[in-house]
Write a structure and sequence with these properties.
homodimer, mainly alpha, Arc Repressor Mutant, subunit A, three-stranded antiparallel sheet, 60% helix, DNA-binding
Chain lengths: 158, 158
DNA sequence: GATATATAGTTAGCCGGCTAAATAAAGGAG
DNA sequence: CTCCTTTATTTAGCCGGCTAACTATATATC
């Protein structure tokens, strides 16, 4: 019984996420909002004027990724960047009127997608599913963190 | 009770997949294999010399995506492209010796990741989880297909 | 105060997905 | 046989993620 990628759950999850992303895109492209952007929108809506570093950490994304995303969203008029007066290194990000006005539609799109995705789940099943994902995050994170400490290759040759 | 992206299961799944991808990458970068490539490797291992169109369909990826991926894998020596003698439009893709030799490690990495991801699941839970994902694919696909037929915007204004 | 170090952000370049438009080869209509 | 259409692949350009290297500003040390 060799491992077959085509029947693996990991492979299936990739497919689900691709569908999810694709459908979200169709629902929101008319607002010039793209699939990676809602997390930023929501965080700014909750607390405007955060620094890129704060945002990157909270979104679990690298600062370089955010720089580029924010450039696009500035171009599309959803956010603006303003330097922090007290520290010229940090630039703070603010929602524009357009950014704020788009929030509702984005929220609706996400809520709809969530509804569709779990349409066939009972409330209990969905809760279980969510907890299982959290457990998976834990197990994957632990593995990733420990992978090199033990099986490591630091002292194996020579 | 407004929809909050930070507590949505969709958001959580994105995070899980990012972790999954990242860990796979760490496990296989020494073979010059990247996270999108295993599906291609496995399909060729199962049936060598498929056309790019066949592969794209089976992998649920656009032909343009495959073209680029194959270019890289040719450069890294995992596959080769040879034109179909009977039809000069189609180019068939074959595993090289390196491609074949790398299969085992890739398979192991994927199996390991699958093991880690579902480490805390009972066999029944994992099966249920898998079936739930399949159902999700179904519901999302149906929604995506029907989205424009009904709520469509073809005849709504004017 | 001048130099060294740390921190925030940007740029360049890569992988993986997409769409739209361009090639190139096969097939079909006349 | 020539012209038109279909089909397979490629190219260009975009979004989203990453790393590595660079810039600019703050801070710390001497």
């Amino acid at each position: 019984m060799e491992f077959d990628i085509r029947q693996s759950t990991g492979h299936l999850m990739v497919h689900v996420m691709k569908l999810h992303r694709h459908t979200f895109h169709k629902l929101t492209e008319e607002y010039d909002i793209f699939p990676g952007q809602p997390p930023l929108l929501f965080r700014l809506h909750e607390k405007d004027g955060q620094s890129q570093k704060e945002l990157a950490e909270s979104m679990r994304v690298k600062p370089a990724t955010l720089t580029v995303m924010i450039n696009r969203m500035v171009k599309n008029g959803h956010v603006v960047r303003r330097p922090d007066p007290a520290d010229q290194r940090v630039s703070r990000v603010y929602l524009t009127d357009r950014g704020r006005s788009v929030m509702d539609s984005v929220r609706e799109a996400l809520a709809l997608l969530e509804e569709v995705s779990f349409r066939s789940f009972s409330a209990e099943d969905k809760q279980l599913f969510h907890r299982q994902l959290q457990q998976m995050v834990k197990d994957l994170s632990e593995f990733d963190a420990g992978k090199y400490a033990e099986g490591g290759s630091t002292t194996e040759m020579e």
